[in-house]
Design brief:
Layout (H helix, E strand, L loop, with lengths): L11 H24 L4 H27 L10 H15 L2 H20 L10 H22 L7 H25 L25 H33 L2
Helix pairs in contact: 1-5, 2-3, 2-5, 3-4, 3-5, 4-5, 4-6, 4-7
Length: about 240
């Protein structure tokens, strides 16, 4: 039996995986919209099926290997993002999209850059981690570029409130079960952004600050686009 090499942060396999995810996330929606506009909705449904399918297979493999565990509860932000993104791709709901958009591009991208992994390519844990997280980013950019969904100013407040409410609930679950969902009880074992924000629980403040700044930066392209359109419309009135 071949043993997978240890995961190397920003090693060759990690970098090529990130490039592949970025390429699919950008090229797929642009290609579908330009070359096969009638397939925009079916391709979105296919992405939703892939998201749910990989999650189901991953859970089944973990159950087979480790047995039932509270660790399999879908309470990590990236796992929740899988279900929210699939829901959004099926319903095209603007309210669901805004949650998926900020969670995926502010949270899931951080997980892709600094994954909490020990085994590298081609270990199943590696493949499922990047398949699940990568498909979330692909799904959100597909909804943005192919389906035409977008966030609005109030989206930032709504998603911030939802995220803080979720964190409060999950903190209670962590206390009751001795878990570490959302990394509220301890930092990831590997290197991560949280390492810059001090010990527990003070890194929570840094995490909230980074989330808010990330939300604003992620909304900035739409703010600039709206500003440009208003100016252009005014100049041609």
């Amino acid at each position: 039996m071949t043993v997978a090499p240890p995961f190397v942060l920003f090693g060759t396999a990690h970098l090529w995986t990130l490039v592949l995810i970025a390429a699919v996330a950008l090229l797929l929606p642009l290609a579908v919209r330009r070359l096969a506009p009638a397939a925009v909705t079916p391709v979105g449904l296919m992405l939703a099926a892939l998201l749910l399918g990989q999650e189901a297979v991953d859970v089944a493999l973990q159950l087979r290997q480790f047995g039932p565990s509270v660790q399999l509860l879908p309470l990590h932000l990236c796992t929740l993002a899988v279900f929210v993104t699939a829901w959004m791709l099926v319903t095209h709901s603007p309210r669901v999209f805004e949650v998926a958009y900020f969670w995926a591009l502010a949270g899931t991208t951080q997980a892709l850059l600094t994954p909490d992994l020990r085994a590298g390519f081609p270990a199943p844990a590696y493949l499922f981690f990047f398949a699940g997280h990568g498909l979330v980013v692909v799904g959100v950019l597909y909804a943005t570029l192919a389906l035409g969904l977008r966030p609005y100013p109030m989206s930032i407040l709504r998603v911030a409130f939802i995220t803080l409410a979720l964190a409060a609930v999950v903190f209670g679950v962590n206390l009751a079960l001795g878990t570490n969902f959302l990394y509220l009880m301890a930092k990831p074992a590997g290197a991560s952004l949280l390492d810059w924000f001090g010990p527990w629980p003070w890194y929570w403040l840094g995490l909230v600050g980074v989330a808010l700044v990330s939300f604003l930066l992620l909304y900035a392209p739409f703010f600039l686009l709206d500003t440009w359109r208003r100016r252009f419309a005014g100049a041609n009135a």
